[in-house]
TrEMBL record:
The keyword Nucleotide-binding applies. It comes from the Bacteria. Catalyzes a mechanistically unusual reaction, the ATP-dependent insertion of CO2 between the N7 and N8 nitrogen atoms of 7,8-diaminopelargonic acid (DAPA, also called 7,8-diammoniononanoate) to form a ureido ring. Keywords: ATP-binding, Biotin biosynthesis, Cytoplasm, Ligase, Magnesium, Metal-binding, Nucleotide-binding. This is ATP-dependent dethiobiotin synthetase BioD. InterPro entries: DTB_synth_BioD, P-loop_NTPase. Homodimer. Its EC number is 6.3.3.3. The gene is bioD. It is an enzyme of class 6 (ligase). Its cofactor is Mg(2+).
Length: 228
């Protein structure tokens, strides 16, 4: 199987990007693949053993089967859980696409079969006054997986996100309906609307999980859909 790499974005912050990233990394590892994930920039971190660590990055680091140092997974980390460019400005730091691209490409040189790069927030999150996180995805030329947080308002968010990714010229590997039947009235009707109007494949609909086995089964199916 050829090496597979994806950029994971979502309809918003808290859409489930990390949840999906971790689930996919584990599903790929169950198929015997060497897996790794990168969270290039994070905002929202705590001190762990004297080092600022972001929970998404720790989860992604733990879920990958290839051992990576924290800095390889998450090279840029800010303490407050706010928009990353504002967190950077508060520390008089400038984050650029070029710098992030260098870090990510460096980590992805580590031999592996399957990798994900998790964004932060949604598609158009600023990195500085001129550049967006979507510019990083463009520079990396990665196919994109969109996690749609299934709640009222997601139709508009999902369509705008798809439009923006296509406008950026990147392929959409597929989208995931996340957290179904959790708190969405007329879930099936909303899912059908998304499915009819999005031309990229629906890779899977993930329920709001009650147990690990259900989650594993859903991610195994999702992983197999990604490869079909
Ligand atoms: N299908 C699901 N079942 C159960 N819990 C879920 C599911 N999807 C997401 N969650 C939970 O919802 C919360 C938000 O999800 P997650 O952290 O993956 O969002 P995110 O898109 O990565 O956000 P960020 O923009 O901060 O990176 C987490 O606590 C996560 O465990
Ligand atoms: C702190 C949060 N969990 C994410 N890491 C960053 C979300 C940035 C959102 C920016 C925005 O679109 O307003
Ligand atoms: Mg996350």
């Amino acid at each position: 199987m050829a090496k597979q790499r994806f950029f994971i974005t979502g309809t918003d912050t808290d859409a489930g990007k990390t949840y999906v990233s971790v689930g996919m990394l584990k599903a790929a590892a169950r198929q015997g693949l060497r897996t790794m994930g990168v969270k290039p920039i994070s905002a929202g971190a705590e001190m762990v053993d004297g080092k600022l660590c972001n929970d998404d990055a720790l989860q992604i680091q733990a879920a990958g089967s290839v051992a990576l140092r924290y800095e390889q997974v998450n090279p840029i980390v800010f303490e407050p859980a706010i928009a990353p460019h504002i967190a950077a400005a508060k520390e008089n730091k400038l984050v650029t696409v070029s710098r992030l691209e260098g870090f990510v490409r460096g980590t992805l040189l580590t031999p592996h079969d399957f990798s994900i790069v998790e964004g932060a927030g949604g598609w158009r999150v600023p990195l500085n006054d001129r550049e967006l996180l979507s510019d990083l995805a463009k520079r990396l030329e990665l196919p994109v997986i969109v996690v749609v947080n299934m709640r009222l308002g997601c139709l508009n968010h999902a369509f705008l996100t798809m439009e923006a990714i296509r406008r950026d010229g990147l392929p959409i590997a597929g989208w995931i309906a996340n957290g179904g039947q959790h708190d969405m009235p007329f879930y099936e009707e909303n899912l059908a609307t998304l499915n009819n109007m999005i031309s990229a494949p629906l890779l899977g609909s993930l329920s709001w999980h009650q147990d690990d086995l259900t989650a594993e089964q859903e991610f195994d199916q999702l992983f197999s859909n990604l490869n079909s």
